[in-house]
Amino acid sequence: MYFVTSNDNKIKEYQEILGIKLERINLDLPESQGVETEDVGREKALAAYKALEHPVFVEDTGLFFDDLNGFPGALIKHLIDRVPLEKICKLVENDKKATATVCLAYCFNGKDVKLFIGETKGTIADSPRGKNGFGWDSIFIPDGKNKTFAEMEAEEKNQYMRKEAVYKFKEYLALGNGAKIDF
Predict the structure, then answer these.
(1) Which band of pLDDT confidence, cut at 50, 70 and 90, is reported for residue 36?
(2) What is the torsion angle, in degrees rounded to the nearest 10, for the CA atoms of residue 108, residue 113, residue 114 and residue 115?
(3) Which residues sit opposite 116 in a β-bridge?
(4) Which end of the chain is more exposed for a tag (fewer CB within 10 A), N or C?
């Protein structure tokens, strides 16, 4: 099974969570545009399987702002490409509640996709903080913490949504579903 991603940071975090080296494939996949991580993940997994004809898993993340009715969701990476994080923080200054979501999508036969979701509730910081992490890590503060993901060490950050999705995936595979993989 391959992990299909072009993101060096994602592969690093998965390997840290699992404690193993993963076989990574860097494909230029078409990515459907939508707010829901599940929709984007499903399409990416199908496209990756079609390209490789081999069991694959992919990941998509989203940051859902309560004040914006869930926007930008999976579109967050495109938003931060065009709008500085400081301005994004100001967009939600009336209601800073947000949900960070990971969708791990697994395709083992070219037609069926299993989705494993991890979520972390939190708030958006007043301004970006921290040097660790990537993407929107410097603006998201998990509930019960006073640090953004970017202010956390990897071990602490990896206790959240990505780990939740990975463990659901491991449980699914342990039940004998799909390809065998050593985690």
Answers:
(1) very high
(2) 130
(3) 104
(4) C
CA distances to 110, 123, 128, 173 from 143, rounded to whole Å, are 38, 7, 17, 30
Pick the CATH number of 2-174 from 3.40.190.10, 3.30.450.40, 2.120.10.10, 3.90.950.10: 3.90.950.10
In the DSSP assignment, the letter for residue 6 is S
> Which pTM does this prediction carry?
0.87
User: What's the rounded Cα separation, in Å, for the pair 142 and 156?
Assistant: 11
Q: Are 104 and 59 in contact (CB under 8 A)?
A: yes
The answer to whether the beta carbons of residues 25 and 107 sit under 8 Å apart is no
Conformation bin of residue 141: beta by default, left when phi > 0, alpha when psi is -120 to 50: beta
| 98 close to 63: Cβ distance less than 8 angstroms | yes
Structure tokens at 174: 């342990």
Q: Are strands 24-25 and 2-4 parallel, antiparallel or unpaired?
A: parallel
Sign of torsion, CA 58 158 21 12? positive
- Biggest CA–CA distance in the chain, Å, is 47
At 159, which amino acid appears? Q
Q: Is 28 exposed, middle or buried (0-12, 13-18, 19+ CB in 10 A)?
A: exposed
Q: Domain residues of the chain, as ranges?
A: 2-174
> How many residues in total does the chain contain?
183
- Percent of residues, the chain, with pLDDT higher than 90: 67
